User: Which sequence fits this backbone?
């Protein structure tokens, strides 16, 4: 039996609740965007929940994460307020960033969430900076940089590997490989392997099944503990799959006709989690059903609150633009 499968019931329920919250949040955002109710661009994390949650279950508010344009799941996994997130996506004044960031720029520094980021690969230097701060101030904090297979080809990521290594920074690089850089297959566009690249910079690395929460949780725990103890950076290559397109409105003509149906039926991280936990007699199907119902109700209320929240006023336009010392 996986050691992670022996987690306390409360931890297992918390992990599933976070994953289920991400799924319901993303499915509702998909529906609302399709109806024309959400401005801007939206990139959904549905199907990748085990990665973000499996990593962030090991983190606290003193730890930092750098996210991507597909950042909703990372925000929820890190503990950001879901109500404030939904208001931000709807561009409301009470959103986490005052309605000015929207889907691709949600941030909450109080939770160590450095922000979703529309610049591909930009999270590497940010994570290194936060890790350097933790190291110099001796806070014991760890930084995590989430990025995709496409971003792994960006120079900023490779430079971050090097910087993290030579400064021995407490950083975990998490390459979330959903198989596509927008519409370009990573099997065609990424030379070599993610773990091989890490080895070239002297970083310990491992490939992980991103559909399996327990595999992600165990590996991330080992690497985060190592970083926290002064062992330096490492890399985890997580293979997973997204249920929606690169962005909302993506026709997905580059994907096989049955690809998404297969993901949902046979590689759904929530289904896999429930099956393994129920088979181990740790949580009953009825308890999972109760979590599902509560999450659906909570997200429905979050949606109601977001739609009713006030828009920013003209007086809010220049707030949070300049920093006053």
Assistant:
């Amino acid at each position: 039996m996986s050691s992670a499968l022996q987690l306390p019931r409360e931890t297992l329920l918390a992990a599933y609740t976070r994953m289920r919250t991400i799924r319901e949040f993303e499915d509702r955002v998909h529906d609302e965007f399709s109806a024309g109710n959400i401005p801007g661009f939206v990139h959904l994390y549905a199907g990748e929940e085990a990665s973000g949650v499996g990593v962030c279950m090991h983190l606290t508010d003193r730890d930092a994460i750098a996210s991507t344009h597909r950042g909703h799941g990372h925000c929820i996994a890190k503990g950001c307020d879901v109500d404030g997130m939904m208001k931000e996506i709807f561009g409301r004044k009470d959103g986490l960033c005052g309605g000015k960031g929207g889907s691709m720029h949600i941030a909450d520094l109080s939770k160590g969430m450095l922000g979703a980021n529309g610049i591909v690969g930009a999270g590497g230097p940010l994570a290194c900076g936060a890790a350097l701060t933790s190291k110099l101030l001796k806070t014991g904090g760890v930084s995590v940089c989430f990025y995709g297979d496409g971003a792994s080809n960006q120079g900023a990521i490779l430079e971050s590997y090097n910087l993290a290594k030579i400064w021995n920074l407490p950083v975990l690089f998490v390459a979330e490989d959903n198989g596509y850089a927008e519409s370009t297959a990573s099997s065609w566009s990424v030379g070599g392997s993610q773990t091989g690249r890490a080895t070239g910079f002297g970083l310990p690395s491992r490939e992980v099944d991103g559909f399996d929460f327990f595999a992600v949780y165990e590996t991330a725990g080992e690497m985060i503990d190592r970083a926290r103890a002064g062992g330096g950076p490492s890399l985890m290559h997580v293979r997973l799959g997204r249920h929606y397109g690169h962005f909302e409105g993506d026709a997905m003509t580059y994907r096989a006709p049955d690809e998404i149906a297969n993901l949902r039926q046979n590689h759904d991280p929530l289904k896999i989690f429930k099956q393994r936990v129920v088979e181990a007699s740790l949580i009953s199907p009825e308890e999972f059903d109760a979590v599902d119902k509560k999450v659906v109700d909570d997200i429905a209320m979050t949606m109601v609150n977001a739609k009713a929240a006030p828009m920013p006023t003209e007086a809010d336009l220049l707030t949070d633009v300049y920093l006053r010392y």
Q: What stands out?
A: Residues 93 and 312 are 4 Å apart (CA to CA). The chain has twelve helices and seven strands.
